[in-house]
Structures are given as structure tokens and as C-alpha cells.
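Quick review question:
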């Protein structure tokens, strides 16, 4: 079963959810704020995604900017980055889609087409 991790007020998340529904792709919905991914989940998902940890940060979010993470991430270890991501769902790029066909951070319809 596909796991769709979203922030319900996020317009990109709404668009991605509609795309999943329009394409009859079944999924379990999870709120990224109330059920923030754990360190263990993030370690597994990041490894399987093939993406650099930096790609998992919501760089357009207010929290990212408030914490000056653009600079701080340059000197943080991967372990510190994962702990930071697991501490606050608003720091994580969204939506996330965890599927046996791939792990996606962010919504790019072209990449998600493998789910059909």
C-alpha cells in the first residue's frame, strides 16, 4: 500500500492527492505534522530514495528560513540532519509518497507516473 505523507493545508499536497485519486491509486494518508516521520523511517526512506538528505528539506518553508538552515546544513552531519527532520514535520519537503515503485519527496507528476 502506498503511504502519502502530507500537510493538509499545502496546495502542492492537495494537487498530489487529487492526482492520486484521479489515477485510482490507493493510498494511506498521514499528516506530516501530527505524525511526523521518525528517524528510523527517514533513514530508510532517504536511503531507498537515492536522494541527498538536503533534498528532503522544505527549503521554501518559514521554519527552514527562520532557523537559517541554508547555512547550518553545510556543517551538520547526516545524523544531525535526520534528527532535525524528525523533530518537526514542517521542515520536511512534502508531500512524500512511499511506494514499492519508489520513494518521492515533493510532487512532480512526471516522476509519479510510474505508479500507474
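Suggested answer, residue by residue:
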Amino acid at each position: 500500500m502506498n503511504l502519502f505523507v502530507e500537510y493538509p493545508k499545502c496546495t502542492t499536497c492537495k494537487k498530489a492527492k487529487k492526482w492520486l485519486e484521479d489515477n485510482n491509486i490507493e493510498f494511506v494518508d498521514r499528516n506530516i505534522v501530527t505524525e511526523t516521520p521518525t528517524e528510523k523511517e527517514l533513514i530508510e526512506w532517504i536511503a531507498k530514495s537515492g536522494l541527498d538528505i538536503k533534498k528532503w528539506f522544505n527549503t521554501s518553508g518559514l521554519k527552514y528560513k527562520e532557523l537559517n538552515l541554508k547555512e547550518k546544513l553545510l556543517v551538520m552531519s547526516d545524523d544531525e540532519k535526520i534528527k532535525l527532520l524528525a523533530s518537526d514535520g514542517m521542515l520536511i519537503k512534502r508531500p512524500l509518497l512511499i511506494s514499492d515503485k519508489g520513494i518521492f519527496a515533493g510532487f512532480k507528476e512526471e516522476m509519479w507516473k510510474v505508479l500507474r
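Why it works: The first strand starts at residue 2 and ends at 6. Residues 11-22 form the longest helix (12 residues).
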